[in-house]
Write a structure and sequence with these properties.
It is a single chain. With 505 residues, the protein is an alpha+beta fold. The protein has three domains: 5-119, Beta-Lactamase (2-Layer Sandwich), CATH 3.30.450.20; 142-241, PAS domain (Beta-Lactamase), CATH 3.30.450; 354-502, Histidine kinase-like ATPase, C-terminal domain (Heat Shock Protein 90). The protein contains 13 helices and 17 strands. The strands form four sheets. It has a five-stranded antiparallel beta sheet with strand order 2-1-5-4-3, sandwiched between helices. The protein has a five-stranded antiparallel beta sheet with strand order 7-6-10-9-8. It has a five-stranded mixed beta sheet with strand order 12-14-15-17-16, with helices on one face. The termini are far apart. Mean pLDDT is 80; it is low at 187-203.
């Protein structure tokens, strides 16, 4: 069964979730529902016939009637005003005050007020305000440069202090301006639509070079995130100065290059040392092997000849004694030659031999060389020499001596008895040209490319005594004098060595 209309309205009034107060122009409360009493801290029905002034209190009484008088004095029709009462207990109450000239009592128009508890709304509003203030302080005091752009017109609406400091602008120069004016384009970091849903997409950041107000170009990393506020899209840009980073990267790159160069250098040095150690070990092995072979023969000769010599002296056999004395001398000369080769090679390999130039005469030099090699020549061998040009030269005489002794020793050793050795020295502009020719066994064509190698011996002399060092040492001395040694040889015909050495000034 349907209720009467009046009963329905009363039911809505009494059970409304919002407080409702109706009062007249004198402030007397004509009617108030239970929710109104609850919001003001009263039991249901207590508010009727009370004064509205008692509810709002002295503090807000004047404001209330200023609103009510204004509504009453206004135009005909419905009028609405709000009154906020923030200190009703722990609540904030808002009165939505209405006036309807069509609803009247005997004493005049009635005023209705909707009562709402706005405590949570005000709390939310305060939190939003505080959040805004926190963001503003964080934004403006951020040690990283930031600014905010409205994407609709690409206008800058806010900047922080670090941004102004980095780019050298004042706030008035950039606020309201277009971001292109400061050398930044919204397109530099990709499609902005992508980032409204994915702010962490790495494509929305990039490294750029921008020009600051002073005209200086700086390297920066710029990025942005997109947010919506009141149906308007904005970009929060962040700009990080990479100057220090780039400087550090350049320094690090330089240090890495220097380190790599040093490592390569040390590696080369270590490789050289290892090769040198390997070489020295090889030399020691070869020396022991060669010494055991090459020293045995002359030492045996000395020992045997010395024993025979003792017997011949006792029997006064002078001719035989002289023969063995000559053999002993020859053996000693051979041993001395071998030792000299090794001493020379050691000095050269350790780089302790340096040229020492003096002025000397080539004729005197040749005579001393002939006297020194006379005992080492085979029976019937002879050396013919000639000097052309100015015989006075300036160079290292000991190095030249070592070169000639090695060449003459080889020429004699690998030539037959009665062989002839031709030696010429020609002083030419800026150099000394030496040739030494023999008619000995020559050098096989296949062995010629290796003839200056350390310990190398041609296949046609393997049965003869020798160290395989003479020509190697001769070339090394020539190189120390900035000269060269070359040769022309035909097997079983002979060999000619050509030495060219620049003259010291």
């Amino acid at each position: 069964m349907l209720h009467e209309p009046g009963n329905i309205y009363e039911s809505f009034f009494d059970n409304s979730l919002e407080g409702i107060i109706i009062f007249d122009s004198k402030g007397r409360i004509v009617n108030a529902n239970a929710m109104a009493g609850k919001l003001f801290g009263h039991k249901p029905g207590i508010l009727n016939n009370k004064s509205i002034n008692d509810l709002v209190g002295k503090k807000y009484e004047q404001s209330l009637w200023s609103i009510c008088d204004g509504l009453i004095a206004g135009e005909k029709g419905n009028h609405k005003k709000n009154l906020i009462i923030p200190d009703v207990g722990k609540k904030k109450i808002i009165l939505n005050i209405y006036l309807n000239n069509h609803i009247r009592s005997a004493d005049g128009p009635l005023i209705a007020a909707i009562v709402r508890d706005e405590t949570q709304r005000f709390k939310d509003k305060d939190e939003v305000k505080q959040s805004h203030e926190r963001f503003k302080k964080t934004f403006h005091n951020n040690p990283v440069a930031q600014f905010i752009v409205c994407t609709t017109n690409e206008k800058i609406i806010d900047v922080n202090r670090k941004f102004l400091e980095l780019l050298g602008y004042s706030e008035s120069e950039v606020l309201g301006g277009n971001i292109a004016a400061i050398g930044i384009s919204a397109c530099n970091c990709g499609n902005q639509d992508e980032y409204s849903s994915n702010h962490e997409n790495p494509a929305n950041q990039c490294e750029e070079t921008i020009r600051v107000k002073s005209g200086e170009l700086i390297n920066v990393r710029q990025s942005y995130v997109v947010f919506n506020l009141n149906e308007t899209r904005y970009q929060l840009w962040t700009i990080i100065d990479l100057t220090a980073v780039k400087t550090a990267e350049s320094s690090l790159k330089l240090l890495n290059e220097q380190l790599e160069h040093k490592v390569e250098e040390r590696t080369r040095d270590l490789t050289s040392l290892l090769e040198r150690e390997k070489l020295m070990n090889d030399l020691k092995s070869r020396f022991v092997s060669m010494a055991s072979h090459e020293f045995r023969t002359p030492l045996t000769t000395v020992l045997v000849s010395a024993g025979l010599l003792e017997t011949y002296i006792q029997h006064n056999e002078r001719e035989k004694s002289t023969k063995h004395i000559t053999r002993i001398k020859s053996a000693v000369y051979l041993l001395t030659e071998i030792l000299e080769d090794f001493l020379s090679l050691d000095k050269i390999e350790r780089a302790i031999v340096k040229p020492f130039t003096i002025v000397f005469d080539l004729h005197d030099f040749a005579e001393k060389i002939l006297n020194e090699t006379e005992g080492a020549l085979k029976k019937g061998q002879s050396i013919e020499y000639n000097v052309t040009g100015n015989s006075s030269v300036k160079m290292d005489i000991n190095m030249l001596k070592n070169i000639m002794l090695n060449l003459i020793s080889n020429a004699s050793k690998y030539s037959d008895e009665q062989g002839r050795i031709s030696w010429s020295m020609s002083v030419q502009p800026g150099k000394l040209l030496i040739t030494l020719a023999d008619n000995g066994i020559g050098i096989p064509i296949d062995d010629q490319p290796f003839i200056f190698s350390r310990f190398f011996r041609a296949k046609n002399v393997e049965v003869m005594q020798g160290t395989g060092l003479g020509l190697h040492i001769a070339r090394k001395y020539a190189e120390l004098l900035h000269g060269t040694i070359t040769f022309v040889s035909t097997e079983n015909v002979g060999t000619t060595f050509i030495v060219e050495i620049p003259l010291a000034e």
